[in-house]
Amino acid sequence: LGLPAAAKLGIHPRLVSRGRWLYLIWGSPNDSSATGMGHLDRTVRSVWASVTVDKKQWSAPIRIAGPALTVAWAPPFTRATSGDASSEAEVALIFGSIRDDGSPSLIDARLSQGDIHVRVFSMSRPVAHISALVDQEPEVIAFVSADTDTTNQNSVFVARWDAGQTMWSPPQLVHRSLTGTQGTHFAALLATGENSLHLVTESRDTSHS
Questions:
Q1: Alpha carbon distance 209, 205 (integer Å)
Q2: Which of 66, 91, 131, 194 is most open to solvent, judged by the fewest CB atoms within 10 Å of its CB?
Q3: pLDDT of 37 above 50
């Protein structure tokens, strides 16, 4: 099958399978799907995908995000998770970005049977280290962001998907960092049974675990 020509120099590419569908997602350091060298970059200017069904032929590159923004693209800043790989369930790709005018946003891309649907939500502060549980009701995300001021960048928030409003709920603070930028730098959601969720964080703040 090979790779789409535009993706061969993509930054941090990821390959996700859903039944007959195969998605290749990559970042670019500019606003074009064809990238230059820069495999170790942690930020990109645009995000792209290509799709194939039954491994026949890759589609032309499809823009998921960009132009005029910056995305922290290196794992674990973004994750593509949803459902059983043997099924044709959708893939969710949720990540934070900052536009050139300084406004932060949350980009929620859903890939299903060759279609890509993208929603962009304005945020009050930049978000990173996003963990998502999207194969349950309600969908939940956790992420690291600034708390009440710009000197505290590493607190943990959660939000739930509001199906009625078709948007994420206002973020709820669940763990406040007390050491500025040396606070939490990892968050992961785990589902462990009916109506039971666990949030695991890693922090450089010795006053918390």
A1: 8
A2: 194
A3: no
The closest alpha carbon to 51, from 105, 93, 94, 98, belongs to: 93
* Residue 128 near residue 156, CB atoms below 8 Å: no
Residue 54 C-alpha from the chain's centroid: 26
Consecutive H or E run containing 70? strand 69-72
Q: Tokens in use for 84?
A: 């059983």
Which is nearest to 118 in space by CA: 69, 57, 58, 52?
Answer: 69
Q: Are 74 and 63 in contact (CB under 8 A)?
A: no
Say which amino acid occupies 16. Answer: V
Tens of pLDDT, residue by residue over 79-136, are 445 455 566 777 888 888 999 898 999 999 988 888 889 999 998 888 888 888 877 7
**Phi–psi pair at 7, nearest 5 degrees:** -95, -5
> Which residue type, as a one-letter code, is found at position 122?
S
Are the beta carbons of 157 and 142 closer than 8 angstroms?
yes
Pairing label, strands 155-162, 172-175: antiparallel
